[in-house]
Specification:
alpha+beta; Thiol Ester Dehydrase, Chain A; disordered C terminus; elongated; two-stranded antiparallel sheet; 5-stranded antiparallel sheet; HotDog_dom_sf
């Protein structure tokens, strides 16, 4: 049953325009040390950028996944092009980039909201999976994260 549902999801996603956007304030950044040996500056970190795009992609994907089909994050990558300091608003724009077999890839850009300066590019890869093989998983489209947190 679920292999057919996964195949149906793949066909539907290949023809879909799945995208999401969000503006958020940079919080809990990572330290960057200026070349002039001044005080460190806290900026958007890779983990936060990837998690935000991952969450946006999961929410956008939810309506396209048939009953019994879930997604699991395979990996994510953040390529930094400019810093965004804590307290700065950044805009995350992400869209479905590719569907290959059971792998779904989202690509997103991060820009400073005030001036549109690109902060970086995020890529997140997911795998479509049969939810019946993961007993106790959360609601439709969700899979438990390590440590017990739910994903949306």
């Amino acid at each position: 049953m679920s292999d057919q549902a996964i195949e149906r999801a793949v066909r539907q996603l290949r023809n879909a325009e799945v995208a999401a956007a969000e503006t958020a304030t940079v919080r809990d950044g990572t330290n960057v040390f200026p070349e002039d040996a001044g005080e460190p500056v806290r900026v958007l970190d890779a983990g936060s950028a990837v998690r935000t795009v991952e969450d946006l992609a999961r929410t956008a994907l939810a309506e396209y996944l048939p009953e019994g089909v879930g997604i699991a994050t395979r990996n994510g990558e953040f390529e930094l092009t400019a810093p965004a300091a804590e307290g700065v608003d950044v805009r995350f724009d992400t869209e479905l980039f590719a569907v290959h077999s059971t792998q779904v890839t989202f690509s997103g850009t991060v820009e400073r909201a005030v001036d549109g300066t690109e902060v970086g590019v995020v890529t997140v890869n997911f795998r479509l999976l049969d939810r019946q093989r993961f007993p106790g998983s959360g609601s439709h489209g969700e899979q438990p994260r390590p440590g017990g947190e739910g994903q949306g």
